[in-house]
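Box S2. Input/output pair 1.
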Amino acid sequence: MDINKMINPSREIDPSVYAYIIPQYPPKEGWVKIGYTNREPQVRIDEQSRTIGVATKTLWYHFARFNTGEYFTDHDFHAYIEKHKIEREPKTEWFNFGPGKEDESEELFMKFTFKKYDDVQKGMTSSYELRAEQEKA
């Protein structure tokens, strides 16, 4: 047995976030599954499709990395989605973008990877008050 064939120490792991829908299943109309994998995203989506026994449609997949190079997980992106008031099915990775609006999930992903948080920070205020000398500075 050649151990070099069993272990590939130079294989890079590039985690990805992926999104898919179940087009022929009315109860999930408008809902988008957003997951995370360290493997090929389409392979993971196909596995889940077989598990649930219905055809899925891949919307998109991208590396789980900010434009600055840092990595993130799907939990980080899920929190960002929730801050945009997108309904989440409890304890799942399913988000209700609404029928015909599923592609907005990718737009949100792109904003997230470029750290565009201004739309979720609008209206946020702080009760902190500057001291007089800080105010003058």
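Box S3. Input/output pair 2.
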Amino acid sequence: MSEGGMGSSHVFRGMEAAMQDPRQPEPIPPQPPPWDPEPPIGEPEPDRLPDEAPTPNPDENPEPPQYGGSPDG
């Protein structure tokens, strides 16, 4: 049993040697300069031109639907 404990501690020692010292900060790579995107160009929507007025949909009706029967009630 003592050999198993020594073997596992040997593995941990090897891992510690491969790892960097946590007290040393990792070097930070040089950062690119900040990029400010250009503002978008004011263009009209592709489906409607500025001089076109939207026409009402004839299928849309503000009245509630009527289901058959006579119009008298």
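Caption for Box S3: The radius of gyration is 38 Å. The mean pLDDT is 67.
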